[in-house]
Amino acid sequence: MLLIQDFDLSSATTFHLPARARWMAEYDSVDQLRSILADSQFATMKRLHIGAGSNLLFTKSFDGLVLHSAMKGMSTVADDGESVIIRAESGIVWDDFVQHCVDSNLYGAENLSYIPGEVGASAVQNIGAYGVEVKDLIVKVEALDTFTSGMVTFTADECRYGYRDSLFKRPDLAGRYIITAVHYRLWHTPRYTLDYGPLKELREVTYLTPATVRNRVIEIRRSKLPEPSELGSAGSFFKNPVIDKSMWRHIQSSYPEAPHYDVDDNLVKVPAGWLIETSGLKGAVEGGAMVYQRQCLVIVNTGNATSDDVVKLYRRVQATVYDRFGIMLSPEVNVI
User: Known catalytic residues?
Assistant: First the structure.
């Protein structure tokens, strides 16, 4: 167990913005987590559980307890010859889990390569990329109920997954459940999703492996997204908006080349990055915050940004895109 008072949050988030927490506690077992939660000195404090800090924007210092999992166990709990179920504990780096699947020649997770974060957060956020969401892999989620200190298990259906959404993000339940492990189903035989962007080119590859797909996804992500160690960011700052087809047809009448993805017969998903760039915001700056020039979906810390700079910039982006397209972008980042 690790306990640190007056903790520097810039070291625990990929935005690297100045902020501090009154306390930080890291645990490597459920018993340690229970012990921390039962400690009288933390009983009346606000609590926030974080993963790798890749989806967080602290607008000020946090006067409470920040929790982090160092639980890193992983095991295969079932294998029926067609698929396997792997139980991964919450503190495992997400991309390490994907690498494990690819090294084991298991299919299903390769499109989700190089997404920052940890296993526990993957099940909260329903991370996704290139036509795959983690809900497509999740079988069940283990969590500690902080109200009762008992362990509970949720099936994937009970997690109520939506686009970057889950039961665990509901305002009335936020913070109640701390995810300790996730069970994922992977496959022994190919189940590729190659319908999005540059991945379409892989359809022509004669001998395709999960490693081939993973390597291509990593190449794409590195070409578009900054490395957090070099340029602070929280990855994709905004969700790709889903709009009805009547609104889409109106946009298409002015922008015939506009990219889109059909969600169903009535709804269309439009890339937020395209909306931002088309609104003339590529490279837009507020103080030390900037709309990343290689991928407008990202806001970066150029080195000396404050949280106020980021807030001013993302609100400017929202207002400008709304004025141009009538679409209000929603942050994917969790603003604290």
Answer: 164, 236, 332
Q: What is the pLDDT of residues 149-178, one digit of tens each?
A: 999 999 999 999 998 899 999 988 888 999
Q: How far apart are CA 134 and CA 125, in angstroms?
A: 9
Range of the domain at 306: 226-335
pLDDT at 326 over 90: yes
For residues 142 and 244, state if they share a domain: no
Residue with tokens 């100045």: 18
- Report the mean per-residue pLDDT for the chain: 94
**Same domain (yes/no): 14, 114:** no
β-strands 285-286, 289-291 pairing: antiparallel
- Domain containing residue 329: CATH number: 3.90.78.10
Three-state secondary structure call for residue 138: strand
- Is residue 236 a contact partner of residue 282, using CB atoms and an 8 Å limit? no
Q: How confident is the model at residue 252 (pLDDT cuts 50, 70, 90)?
A: very high
Instruction: Give residue-wise pLDDT tens across range 40-49.
Output: 999 889 999 9
Tally the domains of the chain: 3
Closest CA to 234 of 16, 20, 66, 69: 16
| Chain centroid to CA 244 | 25
Residues 142 and 186 reside in one and the same domain = yes
